[in-house]
């Protein structure tokens, strides 16, 4: 379109004014004061009649003079009800009718004032007014969890607003509607008529049917438009076209807020401040998009695991420094204590091996040479997740200093970090946790064995094989031991005590085999096989 002389002059003047405004160093303050003034005006309009006199500045003084109040009242007279209805306010007639019906002044509730659902506001009120002791919010884990909760609350607030008034609302509505046709029906009819005119062997109905299948989802359209604008913004930023970069950064940040994604909106708005901030923000958006491709469980693990990894690195650094600089007075008692830990671990491993379980990893027995293995002991799931340890933490967690030390040592004190490491199931005794950790190290499906305690497994002693003698056989008075327990109800089996056999002749032995007598000699000849058969019933 060609612009005439006056139109061209107006366009150039507007462009120069925009460039001058964007290049102004005080543009941020100007935008802030302008936005603050607009918000104050809208807030005063929502308060009721005579709103112009209720617009005040940050000091509480009226923002408009009496003449300006009259002028603004006349200008906004036709738009006041529209603004109130947009923010959930009832019309004046509805308020008066309700006031007359109830016999008193109508006071709208908070849900009507904010336009948000009552359940959402109740949830936020409980979170804001949840009273807790000062010792429950002093540790680094508590601060980190509180920060993540605030981020999640902001996500929910922006998402709910965009679902009611933004692009996200249109996306959700179009999810339930037919897709957009790429070829409009009038154009499809013209194409069908053209196909019929050139006498192709295709009926008009078939042509219309095929053309009606060319569709595109609404979300695809929004994504393509957003991607195109973002590419244009990046191209303008890299070619030093500051005006276009700033305008598109503002436009795209508003679009992303209306899509319910305030994090990407913040990263996009960084492009307003320069080319390098724009590139940093773009890399942040790419990382955020890739991070959201993971499952919610993995995302939570990454979020809380990053803090745990940071604390582990800090502890490892301190242990390395201590290992190098520890004096004799501190080093020798520590070595003695570590030896006691190793002895205790060896005792536990021996009991586990006796009942057919595997020994625990070697890194759970730290030495002064491998001092960093202390971290493995402090984060041992079998003990940290036990009821005994939970009671111990509750007993010593009486001050902020102790709480900070426990959290620095990666000991789960808060509910969120305990659920991350131990799950949301109730705690178990240490013995049960120990057996479950050994038999199920990868947190797979548990078996019946994991429900046994060490007290139940300790009496299981392996059966000693009976020594054989070539010319002797047990007497007839010895009855064979029969296993009455099934695999599902395993109980300790008393070892078979050998009975002093009496000498018998070979002819008598052969005769007993022939006549199908009790063949106690068969068990004597294969003691290892009998031992394995009895032991298998417990596992």
Could you tell me the strand content as a percent range? under 5%
Measured as a percent range, the helix fraction is: 55-70%
Main β-sheet, spatial strand arrangement: 1-2
> Would you identify the regions where 5 or more consecutive residues have pLDDT less than 50?
128-136, 443-491, 504-539
Shape: extended
Q: How many H/I helices?
A: 27
Number of DSSP strand runs = 4
Radius of gyration: 39 Å
**C-alpha end-to-end distance:** 85 Å
pLDDT averaged residue by residue? 72
Largest sheet: 2 strands, antiparallel
Helical/strand content category: mainly alpha
List keywords for this structure.
539 residues; 27 helices; mainly alpha; disordered C terminus; two-stranded antiparallel ribbon
Give a quick precis of the structure.
This protein has 539 residues and is mostly helical. The protein has helices at residues 5-23, 27-47, 66-75, 80-86, 92-102, 110-114, 118-129, 140-165, 167-175, 185-197, 204-212, 218-238, 242-258, 262-269, 275-291, 296-325, 328-354, 374-378, 381-384, 387-396, 400-408, 415-422, 430-439, 454-457, 506-514, 520-525, 527-536; strands at residues 180-181, 215-216, 472-473, 502-503.
Description:
The protein is mainly alpha-helical. Among the domains are: 164-179 and 217-291; 297-457, no CATH class; 472-536, no CATH class. The protein contains 27 helices and 4 strands. It has helices at residues 5-23, 27-47, 66-75, 80-86, 92-102, 110-114, 118-129, 140-165, 167-175, 185-197, 204-212, 218-238, 242-258, 262-269, 275-291, 296-325, 328-354, 374-378, 381-384, 387-396, 400-408, 415-422, 430-439, 454-457, 506-514, 520-525, 527-536, and strands at 180-181, 215-216, 472-473, 502-503. Helix 10 (185-197) packs antiparallel against helix 11 and helix 13 runs antiparallel to helix 14 (262-269). It starts with a helix and ends with a helix. Residues 439-509 are annotated as: Disordered.
